[in-house]
Design goal:
2 copies of one chain form a homodimer. Chain A has helices at residues 42-48, 98-101, 164-167, 173-183, 199-210, 224-231, 241-246, 265-268, 291-296, 309-322, 336-344, 357-360, and strands at 2-8, 17-23, 30-39, 65-72, 84-87, 90-92, 115-116, 147-151, 156-157, 191-195, 214-219, 234-237, 251-256, 271-279, 300-303, 328-332, 351-355. By secondary structure, chain A is an alpha/beta fold.
Chain lengths: 364, 364
């Protein structure tokens, strides 16, 4: 076993603090990673606080992980000691269902769905139809730690052109916004709307722009209009009804990144005929959608969940090629609880990334 | 002017009764039609009672109209006196917008959208951005009448193999269910679900089956399970949770035909990954959709509105070729108010069609 340290919480009402534990040694096909950086995703907060009612404690979040390979199992061929690598939301999937065979591990339809980097299988054994756990792990502990051991197939390569701390949020926020834009065929010259201008939204806007789209971001925060200008995209206040009216029926694709229940009707109205609004931020019931607007122009409201491994590698490489990446604020792990408060308040520009070197300085 | 008679209501709270009025003579490109049969659509009731808050009175419903051509304007080339023809939900559109040019008149994006067979432009002048009315008609009076005058382009041909009274509901209920199945590419061997087993649902089920799909209808009415069996399709009670559970993630396409606000979440769960549920029955806010189920399998919830002229002709011909059509109950127009009560109670098997000969027997 490997001695490991990280930050975890034992209860929904507790704050994260130092947690010492052991990880399994790297098996035949596993890679041991010294974690250098880990992004802070809004999902981390939802999970730490059990807001999706599925948290297994202790909960150690972190699924935007970048580090260096320190050891590889004897069967590993894809990675070598010293490589800069990344781990996103998944560390395994069943590999046998139709989506897995099609390369869409993020839609794994096994009884337990995929194995999340933290919080165990997406469908826990007690909710699985047969009550089994194909991964043998009820819980997993994520990237808010000094070391991670992951099957090589679920380890991504960080391209040389990308700073490791900047690469981290691409592993979740990047692919979560890129995958639906790819799936719904966003192309050069398309008009793309991004609803919510936070961690996901700002990165989605940069990616859409690099894909050649004309991008408009919708935000509730007036101060963020300047940020939009700085990014070279249009910014509109969600409450600006006149501005929304002028944009009616003009978008080819809209991505909603708001991480909680919200009303998408004002944005559905902005879609062109036959176009799609995809919700990636909120995993819960949305406010009622008026089918009159949807049916009158044969629109669609869809959902999308992160992205598969190939898309994750693709967007990492794409960001390196285009010289784009998230705007990050590095923090020591000791500031994580304060960072959570700020993320919830929308007070971050735009993604916190934990500098894991801070962990080593803390006494047990 | 042509002297005309029909059934109309002057107020949302009134019942329909005999109404005498005048129609414009057929212009250069118009066809005058002696109405033989008119289907009774749930929309007729919504409109007569102003349930969509857009009714112009007097309201004379009827958009499933079949009759014989009695006169043609000098420029008419598509139809001749004596032809058996049909008129559906539309009698004109702008013909200039992108959807119209693409042949999708039902998604006309002019300021007034398309001109409905009854109740005037879909977007009335007072709601149009420029306050104009490109059709010059604030109201239109529909097929619950003895005569109709319609531009030839919006007049469909009733194929010889189809009884005129059976053809009538295909003009709305038929194309409303066929168009989305065509658009979302329902194909031989697909598993198709039809939610709601009324006028639209039963016809959609027959069409889907004729398209080669394996069809399951979902109904709240136990007695209708026998009707499903008679049609050769599977029937499931909506409240049968065990049956729904067994069907999870198994449908390629689901069509919801329920004509009022309803909860589609139980049916979204039945879709396969990457598949679509289209709502055609309800033109209002639906119950909140849980984005967790949608996102976890990249599903879509869409809407669709009737169908274009080409699809309408196509489904008329398809029904004639396959020897299918709606199950109808012929009624005299004098029974229309009673029929409305029964439609609202779900007590019709499956579509009322007015035999317009009954109108001639009524004294003024």
């Amino acid at each position: 076993m490997i001695k490991a340290r990280g930050y975890a919480t034992r209860h929904s009402f507790s704050r994260l603090k130092l947690f010492e534990f052991e990880r399994e040694e790297a098996g035949t096909y596993d890679v041991e990673i010294k974690v250098l950086f880990c992004g802070v995703c809004h999902s981390d907060i939802h999970q730490a606080k059990n807001e999706w009612s599925n948290t297994v404690y202790p909960c150690m979040p972190g699924h935007e992980v970048v580090g260096t390979v320190t050891k590889v199992g004897p069967g590993v061929t894809r990675h070598a000691v010293g490589d800069m690598v990344g781990v996103g939301c998944m560390i395994d999937s069943c590999r046998e269902c139709a989506p897995c065979k099609a390369g869409d591990q993020n839609y794994c339809e096994s009884n337990n769905s995929w194995l999340a980097t933290y919080n165990g299988p997406m469908v826990p054994a007690k909710k699985a139809p047969d009550g089994n756990n194909i991964y043998g792990r009820d819980n997993t502990l994520g990237g808010y730690s000094d070391v991670l051991v992951v099957n090589e197939d679920f380890v991504l390569k960080i391209p040389a052109g990308l700073a490791p701390e900047v690469a981290a949020p691409i592993l979740c926020a990047g692919v979560t916004t890129y995958s639906p834009m790819k799936h719904w065929k966003v192309k050069d010259g398309d008009k793309v709307g991004i609803v919510g201008f936070g961690g996901l939204g700002h990165l989605g806007a940069k990616i859409a722009k690099a894909m050649g789209a004309e991008v408009t971001v919708f935000t509730t925060t007036k101060e963020k209009l300047d940020e939009a200008k700085r990014l070279g995209v249009a910014g509109v206040l969600e409450k600006d009804k006149e501005a929304l009216k002028a944009l009616k029926s003009s978008f080819d694709f809209i991505l909603s990144t708001i991480p909680e229940k919200h009303d998408i009707n004002p944005f559905v109205a902005l879609l062109k005929r036959d176009c799609t609004l995809a919700v990636v931020g909120a995993l819960e019931p949305l406010a009622p959608v008026n089918n009159q607007e949807v049916a009158f122009h044969r629109k669609s409201v869809a959902g999308s969940l992160i992205g598969n491994l190939a898309d994750t590698q693709e967007i990492l490489d794409f960001c390196a090629q285009h010289g784009i990446g998230p705007d990050i604020q590095l923090i020591p792990i000791q500031d994580i609880n304060d960072a959570y408060d700020k993320v919830e308040a929308g007070d971050v520009r735009f993604r916190y990334v934990i500098d894991m070197a801070s962990l080593a300085t803390e006494a047990a």
